[in-house]
Amino acid sequence: ANYVPGWDCHGLPIEWKIEEQYRKKGKDKDAVPVAEFRQECRDFAAHWLDVQSEEFQRLGVLGDWQNPYTTMAYAAEAKIAEELGRILMDGSLYRGAKPVMWSPVEKTALAEAEIEYEDHTSVTIYARFPVIKAAHPSLDGASIIIWTTTPWTMPGNRAVAYGDDISYQVTEVLGTGEGALCAVGDVIVIADDLAAGVMTAIGASDSKVRAQIMGRDIAGSIAAHPMAGHGYDFDVPLLAGSHVTTEQGTGFVHIAPGHGVEDYELAHLKHGIAVPDTVGEDGVILPHLPIFGGMHVLRDNAKIAEIMAEHKGVIGIGKLVHSYPHSWRSKAPVVYRNTAQWFVSMESHGLRDTALAELAKTKFYPAAGQKRLTSMIAQRPDWCLSRQRAWGVPLTIFVHKETGEPLRDPAVHARIVAAMKDEGADCWFASENARFLGDAYNADDYEKITDILDVWFDSGSTHSFVLEDRDDLDSPADLYLEGSDQHRGWFHSSLLQSCATRARAPYKAVLTHGFVLDEQGRKMSKSLGNVVTPQKVMEQNGADILRLWVVSSDYYNDLR
Question: 3-class DSSP state for residue 395?
Fold first, then answer.
């Protein structure tokens, strides 16, 4: 098989390295022209490309090292833009505002493949929503209790969800322990199955069940926000939600449509509730929000909980250590934030069905990989392509300022692609609109999008300029080979990109290998100080010994 070495050159890791250099020099990245910043990123990538190429050849890896592919080559950037154009022209690309995973540190949306789950300690609260319109007599004078690990989302609350088939109890607090935030006489509504745990958590030492009702009896009820009277004076409807369970919490779920996918679908898509704008790109609650404006969504949760307790909006505060999404690069926690982004629809043009059908025809080694990737594709949301960064291939899209509609003109996009072949993606940022729009359009009527593409779209497009543009290679590939983490990465994005543009998978088979771990079975990382580099092994034992060890190992599984 002909092996063409290749490098993904764009993305956040390189931006971070350049920004680190800026910080050491006291330099403000935002004050640097985008062309200058992108050139520094390009130079950094080129340096390490040469270093890695030399190291791979020292390991004895055979390939066409004189003619590798790189995603930052002008021809590759043009091809990636051309691939985006295919999706733009067929109508499956759209701009929409919905909650996406957002990194307050990097100030950009992130894909699932850019997320790692780590233990995180969250402040938890039991918040009270006083019933102001009761669909059942027993709810008069009672408060719906919700439990959440994200107090910062409370300013964005617009509804509370219940389960139709869940049994609830209306309970009066008769006694409290020392330091309890609930009070004797409080009447609360919680799920039967969770009642004992809730009463303990809020410090209620004695209580009496006044009534029992089913979730469906709650339909039509309306509550007040926990901070009503302090700037949050709007109705909070109680809505039936299929995602509500009695596994944890209170049997009710607070709904913030700007900060959760299920929240958005239930409140906005199903019931037409407007999505409030509550959090800025830096993770700070916006200044127009009463009381909480200026507070940080990750650093100020304890403060938010305390303020709510002072205003009788919270009857219990705690902490929980749980698995939580973090940015794979900054290692900082991420949040769901409602922002306008560009998405590829999984449904409008049958992308999900096509991808699943192609997976069924693909061979996997080991076979379990097929089930894993199939499950991911079946459950995934629309693909968010936009990133609010600088080093990457831009979304080469013009949007009409009045209608908000993207321009779908093949002639315009052909001019963009032709320019990028000669000048690289920098020409998009450096050129006036009129250069690409031509005489057919008034340049002042259009906004040029300056977001860049998800780097997984870059790597997912490599089949188009590696397999299809080289005479010694065929498309689709006989085999894609990578680590098991790429079911959510390269295997995943390549499948979606190829199915969206060619209605077929870019590969006939997929093989995944394990990873080299330390002696305790931990992933090697600089922070743990447990990295053993191939270069060190070669210095001690020679490259042939290392190669012999590799070929004699069971590559399916992790190695220690």
Answer: coil
